[in-house]
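Write out the 3D structure for:
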Amino acid sequence: MMTFNVDRQQHIFSYEDSADLIAASSQVPIYCTWSFYMGHGVVGGMMTSGYTQGKTAAELTRQILFEGSSPANMPVIKESVNEYIFDYPELKKAGIEEKFLPAGSRVINKPVTFYESYKGLVWSVAGVIFLLAAWVAVLARNIRYRKQSEAKIRQLNAELESRVLIRTRDLQETNEKLTAAMVDLTQTRGHLVEAEKMASLGELVAGIAHEINTPVGNSITAVSHLEASTLEVEAKFSSGSMKKSDLDNYIEVSRNVVKIILSNLQRAAELIRSFKKVAVDQSVEERRRFNLSEYMKDVLISLKPQLKKLPIKLSFIVPSNWRSTGIPEPYGRLYQTF
């Protein structure tokens, strides 16, 4: 394809029109040597390009004008500045792969890829997707960590509930044991209090019994004396030797013995009465109205056996008509002090 731009009818065609006509009629790939035929059905080849030659000449001119290079010292360019140029659509049409092209070949009219057209947008979207993916990964990790934490919390709650149930059961058993122990202690305390009362009452009984023995013994002695006097008077009366003086003497003895017996029996009766009051109040704790003066006298009478053993003189000053309402038992505990 040289410069034949005129047909038989002397019609003149431009280079581009000529290339189009030839490409339309050719059944084989078309190669040429001028770059201005590119894009008109020509596959390509080692192209002579006015642009490339002009660029090379301009570079030489720049060196001379702006860098001060001397044309005489500048080397002559002997190597061609032409390059292999191929049209991408024609390569595809001819079924030629780029890997078979000469090294350094330049392929033009390649379809612009979406990436090349929207490179900035692609990178922006990729960045956004990356950030979203990273955020999703973070959220997924957080969700996984949260699920693991929730599982641990549920496990801990189950363990805590189990421990609480065990501790509650243990506390209930301990509470039941403590309740039973408190009942036993209360009963034991009641028994001890009763035993203490009985022991104190026993001491009081022993003291009262000892105190009662004295008037009873005196009464027995007086009765024995009266019995002896009676036997003696009876013997004299039976023998007829009884004198008036003997009868007078017997009557005097009888009068004295009766006084002694009456006095001792009254004393014993008073001791028994006082002991009875104090003993009843010791065994039964109930509120009642009582004369404090009389009750304290009974307590002092009950305390006489203990007071005799001690160098203590006990006295009290209470109005004789002073009546009190309450439990008299604490007053009766005075004997425990001694």
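The chain has two domains: 15-111, 167-337.
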